[in-house]
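Render 3-oxo-tetronate kinase in 3D.
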Amino acid sequence: MSAGALKLGCIADDFTGATDLANNLVRAGMRVLQANGVPAQPLEGEVDAVVVALKSRTIPAADAVAQSLAALRWLQAQGAGQVYFKICSTFDSTPAGNIGPVTEALMDALGCGFTIATPAFPDNGRTVVKGHLFVGDALLNESGMQNHPLTPMTDANLVRVLQAQCPRRVGLIDHRVVARGPQAIRDRMAELRAQGVGIAIADALSNDDLLRLGAAVAGLPLVTAGSGLAIGLPANHGLAPSGQASALPPAQGLQAVVSGSCSLATQRQVAHFIAAGRPAFAVDPLRIAAGEDVAGEALAWAAPCLPQGPVLVYSTAAAEQVRAVQSRFGTAQAGERIEGALAAVARGLVERGVGQLVVAGGETSGACVQALGVAQMRIGPQIDTGVPWCHAWTGAARDTGLHLALKSGNFGGEDFFSRAFQGLR
Ligand SMILES: Nc1ncnc2c1ncn2[C@@H]1O[C@H](COP(=O)(O)OP(=O)(O)O)[C@@H](O)[C@H]1O
Ligand SMILES: O=C(O)[C@@H](O)C(=O)COP(=O)(O)O
């Protein structure tokens, strides 16, 4: 890639979020490469955007800032014209961050006096009205996200949530302004900036709102957003939406699903897979904590089932079971141990011939992709809104190639775990 060629440099705070963003950029007409972690070398080949996937959503804020700045430096060295900090469409964060601290650190590094933040993704039911985030018909704090294992979201007022994470003043661009079009949005941004506001939550109820916002932010060095805003950025470079997802190599190998997501949508997908009579192995967090080789057991269980079709290994559990585990072992420790076990399962499955792997949950996906040593991925066809198939040739997949789908916790229909593989045939 020659310096100056990169139209958009993206930093995603988790791995499912990265493929979600890459998917929307591809569908809106950009050639996109996803790098898992900050690459050690310049990328080869010409693309319009690179998404650097980090696992920085729930780590200490100072570490998230340091990793994001390292990603920024790399993207700047590739000539990135605009920077996109991809956050979760449910604004997953704690009062300590990391959305505020990372946004502000990127603003400082870019000399950016003003930016917007919007998680809106109407195609997936995420809308922002007067700064309040809705998930479908429910306010964020009544959507199930109040029970998230790592980032419980108990306030739907995003101006308030972000202000708690930021020294800079946080303001609002409300939907009536957004509906009036790009010039009205630019006027509002200038007005807020003159009032001393540094970051504005932007309302959006529809894709048309996102397209208007996309045009209005063309001149901003940085935007902070879910993947929705991405549909409005390629047009700023004369690129048009394309229904043609990049073609991937033919699928090969066995099929498996690894799920550490405890989101409501994933709970339904696990139940649906089991109810359909498909093979499923429940990983017991208490036995993992006791030091038992649960990953080894799961792999031994999977071996005879794999030739018959997709198998599922999961720790997915309802909120009360998650709370019981967390109160015994601590939130972070419980999460890390389970992620470690599921990552070992993912690696073992690929070593045993799995070539088509679905991973559910952003933190879980980060742990699995890191354990697989997958450094780069090409983005292929969409399975469900926000979830594409990807293809990797690196790490554990360097000889055979690996199709990977990283499913965000709350994305996908109930039959996602079986239907995903049908799309690869
Ligand atoms: N049964 C469980 N009890 C406690 N924590 C769990 C359990 N299953 C998974 N976890 C942890 O909860 C977190 C889920 O986060 P993530 O993978 O991002 O999915 P999601 O955001 O969809 O819930 C991970 O850290 C995972 O290890
Ligand atoms: O924006 C989104 O909702 C997703 O891209 C995402 O980041 C979801 O994260 P997980 O729920 O942790 O998978």
